[in-house]
Task: inverse folding
């Protein structure tokens, strides 16, 4: 596997094929845990690891897995990794486990993982699958951090829990509530896809 | 062979067995740590009510201070904690629970030894709006419950602003949560008094 291939996978996962902005999958948790940047970061790391390792495992087992039960096997693999993350958080990061609440368990249902397992790992060798899962997870993390940056600075006046805006400035309470994530995510998608489509059109004209 | 009837069953059973073994092992290794974390969270909350959380204390410090000073106590159906100093009970943590705005709120309220003063409050579970009603878990709100004189009162121990003679400020933008907390505290203290009489 060459460096160029790895680079291509990462660019695809983070930019051109970003799971949240382009494929519009996994946005449920993107709306739910983005009130604080720390929550988003941990959620992003957890999802990246789960996606990377489940893609790796699915790819390793793919030659032995009968086609008609592959979905069952994938779900089993994904849930095993999610439970590992959940146990780890409970044991060594109890505060974070409390803040993320049920959303850690719900990583299982995140379409990104299943999407990468079905769409990539099932037909590619283990190492590219691992990087592909990691890249998609990072793409997801990047979007979450962007949303939570806007929500935390306006809603709590802080970044990663460090207060930056003086208390005297009134907080924008809507930013704390889940609906604000809808507006922000939609605006980010709008700008991102506008640019993406513009570039595509330019590319066509140049040819 | 892959298309035979029995192969998928064996394959699935094998994969499941492998993952279950891994998870069971992980669970076994971390079970004690997780149980300790959960107990310690409660210990820290009870110590907070009595204003005795060790400064910059580690988990071990919290466990030690808790075991040295606090005992479990039962009043009828109510299960709470008592603060002991020199063999004497000098304070109590009385369980409270009731409906908040989004879900139930549970916690403990601290009373001094002759039940004439509220000495603190702490919430164990609450699912109020983060940043609004959720701020009842912040110290700036909870510290208002330190040293409230309730001697001679039989009802309305806590009165929230903007009512006259208020002794606790409501949280701006979270009127319903603030009102719910006041109601929960008042009702549960009344219930507790009925229990100890």
Result:
């Amino acid at each position: 596997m060459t460096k160029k291939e790895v680079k291509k996978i990462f660019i695809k996962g983070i930019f051109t094929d970003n799971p949240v902005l382009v494929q519009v999958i996994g946005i449920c948790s993107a709306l739910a845990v983005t009130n604080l940047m720390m929550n988003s970061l941990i959620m992003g790391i957890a999802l990246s690891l789960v996606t990377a390792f489940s893609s790796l495992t699915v790819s390793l087992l793919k030659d032995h897995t009968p086609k008609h039960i592959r979905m069952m096997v994938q779900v089993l693999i994904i849930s095993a990794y999610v439970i590992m993350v959940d146990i780890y958080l409970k044991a060594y990061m109890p505060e974070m486990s409390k803040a993320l609440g049920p959303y850690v368990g719900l990583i299982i249902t995140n379409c990104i993982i299943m999407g990468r397992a079905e769409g990539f790992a099932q037909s590619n060798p283990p190492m590219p699958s691992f990087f592909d899962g990691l890249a998609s997870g990072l793409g997801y993390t990047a979007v979450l951090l962007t949303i939570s940056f806007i929500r935390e600075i306006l809603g709590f006046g802080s970044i990663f829990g460090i207060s930056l805006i003086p208390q005297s400035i009134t907080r924008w309470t809507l930013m704390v509530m889940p609906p604000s994530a809808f507006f922000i995510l939609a605006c980010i998608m709008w700008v991102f896809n506008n640019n993406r489509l513009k570039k595509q059109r330019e590319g066509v004209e140049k040819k | 062979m892959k298309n035979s009837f029995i192969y998928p069953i064996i394959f699935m059973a094998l994969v499941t067995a492998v993952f279950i073994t891994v998870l069971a092992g992980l669970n076994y290794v971390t079970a004690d740590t997780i149980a300790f974390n959960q107990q310690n969270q409660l210990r820290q909350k009870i110590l907070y009510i009595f204003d005795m959380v060790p400064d910059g204390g580690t988990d071990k410090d919290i466990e030690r201070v808790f075991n040295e000073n606090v005992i479990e106590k039962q009043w009828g159906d109510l299960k709470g904690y008592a603060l002991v100093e020199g063999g004497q009970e000098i304070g109590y943590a009385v369980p409270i629970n009731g409906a908040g705005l989004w879900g139930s709120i549970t916690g403990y309220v601290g009373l001094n030894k002759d039940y004439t003063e509220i000495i603190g409050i702490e919430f164990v579970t609450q699912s109020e709006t983060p940043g609004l009603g959720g701020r009842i878990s912040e110290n700036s709100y909870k510290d208002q419950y330190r040293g409230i004189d309730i001697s001679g009162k039989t009802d309305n121990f806590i009165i929230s602003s903007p009512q006259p003679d208020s002794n606790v400020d409501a949280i701006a933008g979270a009127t319903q949560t603030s009102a719910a907390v006041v109601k929960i505290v008042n009702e549960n203290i009344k219930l507790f008094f009925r229990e100890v009489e």
Q: What stands out?
A: The interface with chain A takes residues 2-3, 7-8, 11-12, 15-16, 19, 22-23, 26-27, 30, 33-34, 37-38, 41, 129-132, 173 of chain B (CB under 8 Å). Chain B has a mean pLDDT of 88.
